[in-house]
């Protein structure tokens, strides 16, 4: 059998169902083997989208997502998507074609040092040098991607390795793999667990920060149990959104730069902070010296390097969040908790203060209103919002959604946190739809981010993938403009997207149904139309460009929340006239 | 407080591992003073001795981040243990006269160095020792004129019968 056929066998053994990719010269044997296989291959219109789709699949399912690209530019186009997946601990295996081994190092056509390029943006990567290595390396790649702290793994496939013959009986696909330098810890240290339980017992003002690790570990039931039993309010990070039901009385909402007052103040005032699967990024802590100043920190994480990296920790526990929370609960159940009435009242007050205002009748439409109507329309088809997967792009649309959309199920709110990758939302939704075919999958994006991967309209049209694209259209790079207003004397530079394109015509040119919404009273109906169509659909919602969300200045104290003055963006006029002078033909 | 740490790392003896490790140091702004690599008693494993400058938090991160690499088998901070440390230095000293030559030879003897090459104008001395010893010798011959130096950087082992065993195997 050919190497490429063995690759198919290896992918089958890993239970891969769908590949997102884009062929090319150095992948011809691979795609020829694919032709003879039963895999579903989704041809995206750009490799970056293939990587985001694989990432979306991985995030929504918890299984490994696979993307494929050819050598050279194919590989470099994957980079953004792979880095995005890796930053958010999403298990993605990226396969790239490579020039034949005898040409490696000779600057051959479409040759690039993919091994070197992917090395710093993956958990690990491989270059297969001999066909006989295929079974082992594929097994290793998937094992590394999905175990411990998940992440992206890259495998480089020289063309001759795909082409050469391989005796799969002599080199079988191993069921078990022993990686000498790789042994993730699953169970937490019993003594540390006991200590943590003791501390939780006597805590008077405890708070939990639940991060993406809780999502990955499927630890939501244990988290809810712990929170309820010990009366500990829970805030989530952007990556943790969904791990704790947001309508729960102990939910504080999102924490950090764009977080709720309830979360940020509770963390600041806490005496015991329990961080679970969260890496204390600068978006969560702000100024480290004023972050939760009088608190004892219990940090649970499967990656020991995250513990103590940014925030000093009193009780570190390395291991899987689900296993550790289970063990902590066993200890807690035997104990009586300190009375926390005062803290609970304080929390309630803060929650009341953080209640979002979402009812607006303004034109242009306020994003809060869009989200309110979106939830209402969704609840008609999915009352608990548990059968809905949302992806967001990056920027204001992302923060509005994180702030106002109430999520009730894990793995249902997919957003690029670590890298903040514009262009992520739409292709990630394509992947998510394959992971959760029965769910309502909605990609919320800004007009800027959508334009970064709008070519994928071709993909959803071609395969009739019923993903709904919702564009928060303000003709502006809203987040940048907000920052320029706040910190750069309102000098708005290069943030105006103008009036083009006409997204309705764009969608229609691909044969996709689309609606433009300009009045608040039309939003609900538009969502219903899109949801009931059962087809790919695009909603272009014209929103108020002056709308901005409160935030904490970068590196600031997290209780120092800034409420921006909402101001209409004004394009720098002379730019255009200068441009016209340069571009108009001389008479 | 900033100080130097000697970290001993056992890695799989494979191409690309050095790039992975040096890339990690570059990306995270860990300050490397020196790095030596060589084979060990196990042909599949190489030992790196890395001297890093930084405070305790930096050291902790260096060890943890190194441990995360799939090809890293074992990491130990040798500062916390008794260890023996050596560096090899070759130095070419300007010695055009018989007097200066005999002077260098005398110094080399005191430092238990070896003369390994000789020309009409120069002497090349091989000297091994910890960093201070090598530095002391170089300070001594510097006034005579150092033409060229090659230093390997520190390599080290734990003192006594203890060995760095791979606990991950």
From TrEMBL, chain A:
GO terms for cellular component: acetolactate synthase complex. Gene3D superfamilies: 3.40.50.970, TPP-binding domain (3.40.50.1220). GO terms for molecular function: acetolactate synthase activity; flavin adenine dinucleotide binding; lyase activity; magnesium ion binding; thiamine pyrophosphate binding. Keywords: Amino-acid biosynthesis, Branched-chain amino acid biosynthesis, Lyase, Magnesium, Metal-binding, Thiamine pyrophosphate, Transferase. Residues 1-116 form the Thiamine pyrophosphate enzyme N-terminal TPP-binding domain. PROSITE patterns: TPP_ENZYMES (PS00187). GO terms for biological process: isoleucine biosynthetic process; L-valine biosynthetic process; sulfur compound biosynthetic process. Binds 1 Mg(2+) ion per subunit. Residues 393-541 form the Thiamine pyrophosphate enzyme TPP-binding domain. Pathway: Amino-acid biosynthesis; L-valine biosynthesis; L-valine from pyruvate: step 1/4; Amino-acid biosynthesis; L-isoleucine biosynthesis; L-isoleucine from 2-oxobutanoate: step 1/4. InterPro entries: Acetolactate_synth_lsu (IPR012846), AHAS_TPP (IPR039368), DHS-like_NAD/FAD-binding_dom (IPR029035), THDP-binding (IPR029061), Thiamin_PyroP_enz_cen_dom (IPR012000), Thiamin_PyroP_enz_TPP-bd_dom (IPR012001), TPP-bd_CS (IPR000399), TPP_enz (IPR045229). Residues 193-327 form the Thiamine pyrophosphate enzyme central domain. It holds the Pfam family TPP_enzyme_N. Transmembrane segments: none annotated. Its cofactor is Mg(2+); thiamine diphosphate. It catalyses: 2 pyruvate + H(+) = (2S)-2-acetolactate + CO2. Its EC number is 2.2.1.6. It comes from the Archaea. Belongs to the TPP enzyme family. This is Acetolactate synthase. The gene is ilvB.
UniProtKB/TrEMBL annotation, chain B:
It is an enzyme of class 2 (transferase). The keyword Iron-sulfur does not apply. Signal peptide: none annotated. InterPro entries: Acetalactate_synth_ssu (IPR004789), Acetolactate_synth/TF_NikR_C (IPR027271), Acetolactate_synth_ssu_C (IPR019455), ACT-like_dom_sf (IPR045865), ACT_dom (IPR002912), AHAS_ACT (IPR039557), AHAS_small-like_ACT (IPR054480). Pfam families: ACT_AHAS_ss, ALS_ss_C. Pathway: Amino-acid biosynthesis; L-valine biosynthesis; L-valine from pyruvate: step 1/4; Amino-acid biosynthesis; L-isoleucine biosynthesis; L-isoleucine from 2-oxobutanoate: step 1/4. GO terms for cellular component: cytosol. It catalyses: 2 pyruvate + H(+) = (2S)-2-acetolactate + CO2. Keywords: Amino-acid biosynthesis, Branched-chain amino acid biosynthesis, Transferase. Its EC number is 2.2.1.6. One of its GO terms (molecular function) is acetolactate synthase activity. Residues 6-80 form the ACT domain. GO terms for biological process: isoleucine biosynthetic process; L-valine biosynthetic process. Catalyzes the conversion of 2 pyruvate molecules into acetolactate in the first common step of the biosynthetic pathway of the branched-amino acids such as leucine, isoleucine, and valine. Dimer of large and small chains. Belongs to the acetolactate synthase small subunit family. This is Acetolactate synthase small subunit. It comes from Methanococcus maripaludis.
């Amino acid at each position: 059998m050919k190497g490429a056929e063995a690759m198919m066998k290896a992918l089958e053994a890993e239970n891969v169902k769908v590949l997102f990719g884009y062929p090319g010269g150095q992948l011809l044997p691979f795609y020829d083997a694919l032709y003879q296989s039963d895999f579903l291959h989704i041809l995206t219109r750009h490799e970056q989208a293939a990587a985001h789709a694989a990432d979306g699949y991985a995030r929504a399912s918890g299984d490994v997502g696979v993307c494929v690209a050819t050598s050279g530019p194919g590989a470099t186009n994957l980079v953004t998507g792979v880095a995005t997946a890796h930053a958010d601990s999403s298990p993605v295996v990226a396969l790239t074609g490579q020039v034949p081994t005898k040409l490696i190092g000779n600057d051959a056509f479409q040759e690039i040092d993919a091994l070197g390029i992917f090395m710093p943006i993956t958990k690990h990567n491989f270059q297969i040098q001999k066909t006989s290595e295929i079974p082992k390396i594929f097994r290793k790649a998937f094992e590394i991607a999905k175990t411990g702290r998940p992440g992206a793994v890259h495998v480089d496939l020289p063309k001759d390795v795909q082409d050469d013959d391989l005796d799969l009986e002599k080199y079988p696909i191993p069921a078990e793999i022993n990686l000498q330098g790789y042994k993730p810890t699953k169970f937490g240290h019993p003594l540390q667990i006991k200590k943590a339980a003791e501390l939780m017992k006597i805590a008077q003002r405890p708070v939990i920060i639940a991060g993406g690790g809780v999502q990955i570990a499927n630890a939501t039931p244990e988290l809810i149990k712990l929170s309820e039993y010990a009366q500990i309010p829970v805030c989530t990070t952007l990556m943790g959104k969904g791990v704790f039901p947001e309508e729960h009385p102990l939910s504080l909402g999102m924490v950090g730069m764009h977080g709720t007052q309830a979360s940020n103040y509770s963390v600041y005032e806490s005496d015991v902070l329990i961080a679970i699967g969260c890496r204390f990024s600068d978006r969560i802590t702000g100024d480290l010296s004023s972050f939760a100043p009088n608190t004892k920190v219990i940090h649970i994480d499967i990656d020991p390097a995250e513990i103590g990296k940014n925030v000093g920790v009193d009780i570190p526990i390395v291991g899987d969040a689900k296993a550790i929370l289970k063990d902590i609960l066993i200890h807690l159940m035997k104990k009586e908790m300190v009375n926390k009435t005062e803290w609970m009242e304080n929390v309630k007050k803060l929650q009341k203060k953080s209640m979002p205002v979402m009812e607006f009748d303004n034109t242009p439409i306020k994003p809060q209103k869009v989200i309110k109507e979106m939830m209402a329309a969704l609840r008609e088809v999915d009352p608990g919002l548990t059968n809905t997967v949302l992806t967001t792009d990056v920027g204001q649309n992302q923060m509005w959604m994180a702030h106002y959309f109430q999520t009730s199920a894990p793995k249902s709110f997919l957003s690029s946190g670590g890298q903040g990758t514009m262009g992520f939302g739409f292709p990630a939704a394509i992947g998510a739809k394959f992971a959760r075919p029965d769910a309502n999958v909605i990609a919320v994006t800004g007009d800027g981010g959508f334009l970064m991967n709008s070519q994928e309209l071709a993909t959803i049209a071609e395969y009739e993938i019923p993903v709904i694209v919702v564009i928060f259209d303000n003709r502006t790079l809203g987040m940048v403009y907000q920052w320029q207003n706040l910190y750069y004397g309102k000098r708005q530079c290069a943030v105006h997207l103008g009036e083009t394109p006409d997204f309705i015509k764009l969608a229609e040119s691909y044969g996709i149904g689309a609606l433009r919404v300009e009045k608040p009273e039309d939003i609900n109906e538009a969502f219903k139309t899109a949801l009931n169509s059962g087809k790919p659909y695009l909603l272009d919602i014209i929103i108020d460009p002056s709308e901005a969300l409160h935030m904490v200045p970068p590196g600031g104290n997290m209780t120092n929340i800034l409420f921006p003055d909402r101001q209409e963006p004004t394009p720098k006029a002379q730019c255009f006239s200068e441009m016209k002078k340069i571009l108009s033909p001389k008479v | 407080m900033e100080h130097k740490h000697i970290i001993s790392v056992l890695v799989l003896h494979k191409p690309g591992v050095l790039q992975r490790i040096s890339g990690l140091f570059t990306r995270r702004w860990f300050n490397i003073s020196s790095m030596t690599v060589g084979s060990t008693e196990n042909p599949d494993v190489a030992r790196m001795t890395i001297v890093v400058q930084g405070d305790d938090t930096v050291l902790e991160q260096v060890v943890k981040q190194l441990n995360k690499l799939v090809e890293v088998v074992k990491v130990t901070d040798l500062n916390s243990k008794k260890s023996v440390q050596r560096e090899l230095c070759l130095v070419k000293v300007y010695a055009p006269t018989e007097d200066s030559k005999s002077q260098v030879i005398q110094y080399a003897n005191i430092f238990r160095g070896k003369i390994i090459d000789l020309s009409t104008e120069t002497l090349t001395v091989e000297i091994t020792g910890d960093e201070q010893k090598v530095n002391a010798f170089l300070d001594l011959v510097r006034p005579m004129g150092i033409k060229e130096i090659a230093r390997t950087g520190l390599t080290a082992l734990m003192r006594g019968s203890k060995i760095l065993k791979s606990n991950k195997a």
